[in-house]
Structure formats: structure tokens, C-alpha cells
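Quick one, C-alpha cells below:
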């Protein structure tokens, strides 16, 4: 990725949500290595949800997590501040005006934290407790060319600098004096990118999310961006992690080299990529850091792409369990990586044992909404696509979205992901960043209710008074609830925007979930390009999807893809040299996808219009004496409402088509407190397909306090 373009654009476009709550107490470890947290939640769901309260900085680029004096510290690119937590769950923001901004590096030496920033000479140290946010300059580097700088203090106190971000330049290392920060060795090449041998390093136009290179096309084969070096020492070995190809691609990922010496030589791991995720709601897994939790287990935090509003690109964060096996192979687990996972410290051997088993129940289910803005259909809210969203026609209180799970399910958690449709200041818009912006509120207030009959509702989440920016509001319920219908209702939408939901993700049914290994799997390695392999397997009836695992040893299938709606996949991420082993596992939530039956719906792309006042002579096009309201009709939406109807003459027609109904509406018909229709008009026109009549269009008038409404319904025989 073009880092200069990245820096120019990304500071304006990024989203991060972080929830700052008081820190919970953590008990002593038991013999089974389980840490018991005294209060909920025990789980998280990618993308990571953080909130900074009134702090306006929103930035999730190049995340670093450091465990220092029994606290986790989270640093991201940009603002003069960071976060700390004692449990990786409850975060507190620290404003640090003297802290370096930009793409950061932070490292500990004894009882002191040091920090620097990419391509800058100044080195800073923390004065006292980092939770106080006091920093001062303490030295200068010889060079201002340490791109994506990563300082590393070894156990013996020696200091090394790893750096590099480029399509053509290597990742390098140089030893620095730990007191003066001056170079005491010659910079040494660690490695270059090698996309012809490493399939996951390829920049494929098919994986492009949003372009940074607007001045030229993306070519089928390009040198990858190799960036974001990060060193972690584990069991005496040095693992040099790097990010490959660029944030703008679904296949943004991490690889790793390993050495017995911090200066190398470094050997490429044929088990790469380290973190890789191209499917699901939170794809991408690049430019982050790997760290030890309080139990000594490894985790990798990654930068992932995001998209809001009118296709504005940015970044957020995901967290994955990582481990080093008995043969010193570092690997992560991204399977079910955007389903609920346990926080660090909850499960022993998290890389193999961190998925809760709570399945995605909302995927491709039937959705009912209060209204729909043209082009942003309800199905977008349950499609597992972070690039799409549903939007209501307004941001008014009462706009809602209901997901029908198809049957009664046991719901354990939900993740409500909001968009910013038509907001006055959108993500990435003018003034978005640190200290700028309109000063308008960005929060979303809402409620979530559940029901088994779509009539009687119980409240499970009341965010009516929320004042924090919760773009990915993940909620683990105190106790699971049984429900078929889950409804989210708008209370307040920020910045004059419309109520819009990127995905409403509902999780549960662990007791009925099924995981089935597929017996018949055929694999064809591309003989002309061994970086590719195509798999075909026998479909498993009722399966929601499949996990395709692969690796270079039969007991080390460390890499994976999630596949929905298909029993085949072509993998483009293989290393050319080794042979591979593959397996496919089907998973089933116990519910069925909603399949739209077109014979039961009518009207995609059609319009109806209501004209107030009498028309002029002739056809009347452009000659309305009053005003005209038009509504686009959609498949599956069988009721359309014209509000604020006052006494006058009205005409309902198919837009630019024949009149369906007309008549004078009086105050007696429109003003009142009754709930029954004051006027009905049946059989306005037949509805059907081919030669078959399936239903009728009808109309009714309902009174209101100051005005009434006209309701047009599509009433089908079945």
C-alpha cells in the first residue's frame, strides 16, 4: 500500500469503537488455568468494540498491545493518547499531549516505556506511571528513515530497530545504543517480499476493497507492500512478523520469519500466512502486533479494513489467539474469527479452544423493517458483508428492523453494527479526526427486544440513554433468551443521518449446532501456478457453511477459509514449494436460510404515487394542481403508508400509469382517536404472475390526532 496515500487518507476515514468501563476484578488462576472474571462479559466479537466516551479521536491503525506492570496498553496510530486495561476488556483512555503521534512503536526497558514514530528522529520516554500520560523527549535517532519503526529491547538490554514499508525495499534491522539511540551496527536486510513464491503476498484486483492508487489501474500481478515489522521473542526464538500487500485488500495479512538471533538470519515459515481472513464480516488481518497475555499465551491484534457511508474506506481492529507449537511454528486461528470468542485469560490453549460455539443465527434470515431507503435493502443487514448496509428512510425515533430467525432459538449474544447513512459529517468526511470535526454527536441510541410471536415483546437491551459511539456494539446477554424474532428500534440517530445498520448479527444455539467433517473432498493444485488450488466437496444438507483448513503437515492445518453458499473454493494463498493437506468441516446453526419466494411478492422497481388536489386537463403529467408523493415498492414489503393526510381530494395511481383510486377525504375521516379504518377501498387491482392471480391491492384510511394516513396493502391469497 502507498503509505503516503495511506497517511493522507486514513487519518480522516477510520472508525474504532472502544467501551471504557471500570476495571473488573480478576481472581487467582486455578489449577485448570481458568481465570474467573466476576462480572460479564466473558467474550468479545471482532471487530473489536472500544469507546472513548467524549474523546473524539477515532483511529484503529497499526495497533500495538504491550503488557507492562500487569496492565495491557493499547496504542494506535494518530492521536496523542492510548488506552490501558487490567483484563483486555475494560479500557480507560489516557490523554498524553507529549506522546508522539503517527505510526508508533512502544517498547519497555526495565521500568520505563519508550516510544517513537515512523520516519521521525525523536525518542520519548514515559515519566512515572503510563496511566498518568506524562512523556518527554529523551533522545534522537541517527536516521529519520525508520519506516514503520519497531523498537525491541532484548532480555539482555540490547536495543534493536526493525523497520521497512515498501513494494521494493526490504525489512531491515539495526542495533542501537540503548542509552543514546544511535546506530552501533550496519543496517542489515532481513527479507524482501516474494509474491511469486508466497501466494498470500499477491495483490489480486479481485480482492480490492477500495483503491488508494486512483491514478492507475491495479495489475493482475504486483509487488506487494511489505510493511509493519514486529518482533516477538518466545522460547528463545525471535519471530519477525510483517504485514503483506496493503489495507485496501481483503487478503491483507501477516506472515512471519524466525531466527535464533535478533539480527538474523531470518528463515521464512512455510506455514505462512500467520493471520489471514478473506471472508466473513471482518476480513483482513494485517499490520498489528503479537503479544503475551498474563498467562503467557500469545495473541495477535490486527488492522482490518472498514467501509462506511458512501464507500469511505478506513480501518478497525481484530484480535486472534496465537501459539507456537512443539516444533517452534508460530500460528494463529482465524476460523470463526468474527464469531464470539473468549477474552484473553479465559481459556487455556486459546488457539485451539477459544470459539464459544455460539453460531450466527441471523445470516440470510427474513427481515422486516419500518421503511427502506431506495438502494439499501433490508437483506443487507444480515448478509455478512461489511461493505453493504440497510438504511431506513429517516432517522426518526421508531424506525425499526426485525430479524426472523425462522424458529425459536437460544440467543446468547448480539453485535449491532451501525452505518452513517446521510450523516452530516460522515466517517472520513471533513474535520473527522483529532480535535476537528463539527462537534456534533456521533452516538446511536436504540433498544433491542425479542419475541416468539412478533406481537408480544420483551426488552433485552435498552440503549435509550446511550451517549457513546458504539459502532460495533457487541452485547453478551447475562443469560441466554429463547426467541424467534429480534427487533432493534431507533431512539436517536446522530448528525441528522438516517437509521442504518450494516449488520445485525445474532449468536446462539450452541446446544444444537452441528460440525461435520466432509468425507468427499477433491483438490486440484494448479500445475501452472502452484500458489493456487481448487477444492470441490460433497454438500452437507442444511449446512450454513464450511471451514476449509489447510497446511503443509496433516496435523498442522493452521490456515483456513470460511465458505458460505458454495461447495467449492479456489485458494490463492499457498506457498509454491511445499505440498499441502486439506480438510473441510461443515457447520450448521440449526436454522434455515430465508429463501425468497417470488410468487408471494410483487413490485421490485415499481412505484405508486399519491397526488393531493385535482389534476388539470389531459394526462396530467407535470400539471398537478397540488403535490405528489411517490413510494418505491419492493419484494416482500406488502404495506405502504402515506402520512400527514389532511382534508382534500386525493388520487392514487401507479406512477405514470393508470389511476387506482381517487376521492375526497373529509376531516371526519382523517381526524380522530379511533383505531379502525374510516374508509376502505377493496380490489383496486389484481396482483399476480403470468396468468395466475395471487392477490389484490387494497386501501384504507386511518384517522389521527391532527391528520390521517392512507395505507396501501398488497394482500395475497397465501
Amino acid at each position: 500500500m502507498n503509505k503516503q496515500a495511506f497517511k493522507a487518507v486514513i487519518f480522516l476515514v477510520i472508525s474504532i469503537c472502544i467501551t471504557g468501563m471500570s476495571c473488573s476484578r480478576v481472581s487467582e488462576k486455578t489449577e485448570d488455568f481458568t481465570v474467573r472474571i466476576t462480572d460479564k462479559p466473558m467474550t468479545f466479537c471482532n471487530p473489536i468494540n472500544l469507546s472513548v466516551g467524549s474523546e473524539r479521536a477515532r483511529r484503529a491503525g497499526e495497533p500495538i498491545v504491550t503488557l507492562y506492570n500487569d496492565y495491557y496498553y493499547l496504542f494506535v496510530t494518530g492521536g496523542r493518547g492510548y488506552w490501558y486495561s487490567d483484563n483486555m476488556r475494560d479500557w480507560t483512555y489516557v490523554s498524553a499531549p507529549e506522546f508522539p503521534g503517527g505510526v508508533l512503536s512502544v517498547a519497555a526497558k526495565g521500568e520505563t516505556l519508550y516510544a517513537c514514530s515512523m520516519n521521525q528522529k525523536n525518542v520519548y520516554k514515559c515519566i512515572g506511571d503510563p496511566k498518568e500520560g506524562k512523556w518527554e523527549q529523551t533522545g534522537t535517532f541517527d536516521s529519520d528513515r525508520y519506516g514503520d519503526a519497531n523498537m525491541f529491547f532484548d532480555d539482555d538490554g540490547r536495543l534493536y530497530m526493525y523497520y521497512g514499508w515498501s513494494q521494493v525495499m526490504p525489512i531491515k534491522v539495526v542495533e542501537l545504543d540503548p542509552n543514546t539511540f544511535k546506530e552501533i551496527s550496519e543496517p542489515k536486510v532481513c527479507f524482501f517480499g516474494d509474491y511469486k513464491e508466497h501466494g498470500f503476498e499477491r495483490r489480486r484486483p479481485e480482492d480490492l476493497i477500495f483503491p488508494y492508487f486512483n491514478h492507475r489501474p491495479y495489475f493482475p500481478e504486483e509487488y506487494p507492500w511489505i510493511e509493519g515489522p514486529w518482533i516477538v521473542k518466545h522460547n528463545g526464538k525471535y519471530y519477525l512478523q510483517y504485514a503483506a500487500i496493503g489495507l485496501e485488500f481483503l487478503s491483507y495479512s501477516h506472515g512471519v520469519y524466525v531466527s535464533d538471533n535478533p539480527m538474523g538470519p531470518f528463515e521464512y515459515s512455510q506455514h505462512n500466512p500467520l493471520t489471514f481472513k478473506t471472508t466473513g464480516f471482518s476480513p483482513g488481518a494485517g499490520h498489528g502486533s503479537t503479544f503475551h497475555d498474563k498467562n503467557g499465551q500469545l495473541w495477535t491484534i490486527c488492522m482490518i479494513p472498514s467501509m462506511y457511508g458512501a464507500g469511505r474506506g478506513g480501518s478497525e481492529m481484530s484480535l486472534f489467539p496465537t501459539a507456537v507449537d512443539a516444533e517452534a511454528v508460530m500460528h494463529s486461528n482465524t476460523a470463526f474469527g468474527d464469531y464470539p470468542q473468549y477474552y484473553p485469560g479465559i481459556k487455556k490453549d486459546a488457539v485451539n479452544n477459544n470459539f464459544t460455539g455460539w453460531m450466527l443465527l441471523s445470516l440470510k434470515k427474513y427481515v422486516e423493517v419500518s421503511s427502506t431507503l431506495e438502494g439499501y435493502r433490508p437483506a443487507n443487514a444480515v448478509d455478512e458483508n461489511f461493505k453493504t448496509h440497510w438504511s431506513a428512510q429517516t432517522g426518526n425515533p421508531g424506525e425499526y428492523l426485525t430479524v426472523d430467525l425462522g424458529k425459536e432459538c437460544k440467543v446468547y449474544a448480539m453485535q449491532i453494527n451501525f452505518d452513517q447513512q446521510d450523516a452530516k459529517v460522515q466517517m472520513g468526511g471533513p474535520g473527522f479526526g483529532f480535535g476537528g470535526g463539527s462537534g456534533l454527536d456521533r452516538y446511536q441510541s436504540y433498544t433491542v427486544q425479542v419475541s416468539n410471536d412478533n406481537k408480544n415483546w420483551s426488552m433485552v437491551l435498552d440503549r435509550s440513554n446511550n451517549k457513546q459511539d458504539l459502532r460495533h456494539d457487541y452485547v453478551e446477554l447475562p443469560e441466554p433468551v429463547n426467541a424467534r424474532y429480534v427487533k432493534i428500534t431507533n431512539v436517536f440517530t446522530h448528525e441528522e443521518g438516517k437509521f442504518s445498520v450494516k449488520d445485525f448479527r445474532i449468536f446462539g444455539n450452541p446446544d444444537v449446532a452441528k460440525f461435520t467433517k466432509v468425507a468427499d473432498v477433491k483438490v486440484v493444485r494448479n500445475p501452472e501456478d502452484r500458489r493456487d488450488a481448487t477444492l470441490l466437496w460433497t454438500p452437507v444438507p442444511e449446512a450454513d457453511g464450511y471451514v476449509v483448513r489447510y497446511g503443509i503437515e496433516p496435523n498442522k492445518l493452521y490456515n483456513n477459509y470460511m465458505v458460505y453458499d458454495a461447495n467449492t473454493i479456489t485458494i490463492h494463498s499457498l506457498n509454491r514449494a511445499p505440498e499441502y493437506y486439506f480438510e473441510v468441516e461443515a457447520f450448521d446453526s440449526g436454522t434455515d436460510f430465508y429463501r425468497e419466494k417470488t410468487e408471494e411478492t410483487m413490485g421490485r422497481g415499481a412505484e405508486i404515487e399519491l397526488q393531493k388536489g385535482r389534476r388539470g386537463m389531459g394526462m396530467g403529467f407535470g400539471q398537478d394542481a397540488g403535490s405528489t408523493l411517490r413510494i418505491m415498492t419492493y419484494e416482500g414489503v406488502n404495506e405502504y403508508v402515506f402520512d400527514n393526510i389532511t382534508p382534500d381530494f386525493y388520487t392514487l395511481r401507479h406512477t405514470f400509469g393508470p389511476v387506482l383510486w381517487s376521492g375526497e377525504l373529509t376531516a371526519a375521516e382523517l381526524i380522530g382517536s379511533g383505531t379502525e379504518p374510516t374508509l376502505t377501498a377493496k380490489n383496486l387491482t389484481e396482483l399476480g404472475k403470468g396468468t395466475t392471480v395471487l392477490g389484490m391491492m387494497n386501501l384504507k384510511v386511518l384517522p389521527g390526532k391532527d391528520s390521517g394516513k392512507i395505507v396501501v396493502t398488497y394482500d395475497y391469497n397465501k
